[in-house]
Write a structure and sequence with these properties.
β6 and β7 form a beta hairpin. The model has no long low-confidence stretch (mean pLDDT 93). The strands form 2 sheets. Strands 1-2-3-5-4 form a 5-stranded mixed barrel. It contains 10 helices and 8 strands. Keywords: DNA damage, DNA recombination, DNA repair.
């Protein structure tokens, strides 16, 4: 007896050409794990899957088991998040989120809070003012690091535990992207580190704790948001060896 079809709610992260008109779709599902499945005809503009399984979309899919990847037999669009595809500025801000999920989320490793958090950030990025796009993306990435278990230490020294954000006599904090985060002056000598501004680290710590609604109301200017995004990007490279091309574009495109 064959295995039954599997129903999933999914956020589309990436589509890769399989044949002339077929695609392999990478998606995040409700339990917070990542899956891949085949969508036949999804690259044909006239095929219903073309719109229902587009990037940033939230959809309900029915997956039929096969020898290899499951094959989608039905798809219903729940939320399109169309501005994230049609608006180049919103697309630039949102693309690193999908990119990071593709590289950091794992198959068969559920992270229950990850799906609703991702659905929420896509909703916010679709409708928010442009000035808060980058702070929202930075806040999401910092929360992603925490959920997946590789959050950097932003407020205390990774060696001695000294608090670094309060009563710091200097405007700089030493930071190790390889060894786990912030360092006090005395402990920094035994680590490969760089100097970060106290202002950037304070905002990174604050954004990691705020809700997305609170981030929209926070007075985080674009320069500060870019410095926090640089921190996130460097942390991914140092901790996981992951380089996000979409983040390189965001930080260098000149759109903001």
């Amino acid at each position: 007896m064959g295995r039954p079809a599997q129903h999933e709610r999914a956020i589309v992260l990436h589509r890769n050409r399989l044949r002339e008109s077929d695609a392999i779709v990478d998606a995040l599902i409700e339990d917070g794990s990542r899956i891949s499945f085949v969508a036949r005809g999804a690259l044909k503009p006239s095929n219903p899957f073309a719109a229902r399984l587009d990037l940033f979309g939230v959809c309900d899919v029915m997956l039929a088991p096969s020898r290899g990847l499951a094959i989608v037999s039905e798809a219903r669009l729940a939320a399109a998040h169309a501005p994230l595809r049609s608006d180049i500025i919103r697309n630039a801000a949102a693309a690193p989120i999908l990119d990071a999920l593709r590289r950091c989320a794992h198959e068969d490793l559920p992270v229950p809070r990850l799906f609703p958090m991702t659905e929420s950030i896509l909703d916010h990025l679709s409708t928010c003012e442009e000035i808060v796009l980058c702070p929202l993306t930075a806040a999401y990435l910092l929360k992603l690091f925490a959920l997946l278990g590789f959050r950097p230490s932003l407020d205390t020294c990774i060696d001695c535990g000294q608090s670094l954000l309060e009563d710091n006599p200097t405007d700089e904090v030493r930071f190790s992207y390889i060894d786990g985060g912030a360092l006090c002056y005395d402990c920094a000598a035994s680590h490969v580190h760089v100097a970060l501004s106290l202002h950037t680290l304070n905002w990174a710590h604050a954004l990691s704790l705020m809700t997305f609604d609170e981030v929209e109301q926070a007075d985080c200017d674009i320069d500060t948001a870019f410095h926090v995004l640089h921190l996130c990007h460097s942390w991914l490279r140092g901790a996981l060896g992951v380089n996000l091309k979409s983040m390189n574009f965001l930080l260098s495109c000149g759109l903001f």
